[in-house]
Amino acid sequence: MTKSPAAPADAAARRAIKPVICYPNETLPVPDLPLYQAARQGAVKTGEVLVQPRDAACFEVPAGHFFRISSVEGPQVGDLNLWNKNDLSERFYSGKTRALHGTHITTGERMWTSFPHMRPMATITEDTLGWYGMDEFGGSVHDVIGTRCDPYTGNLLAGSQYHHCCHSNLTRALADHLGLPPAEAEPHVHDVLNVFMCTGFTRDTGQYFMKASPVRPGDYLEFFAEIDLLGALSACPGGDCSAEHSSDTAACFPLLVEVIAPAEGALSGWKSPLPNAYDQSHGCR
Question: Do the domain assignments include residue 124?
Answer without folding.
Answer: yes
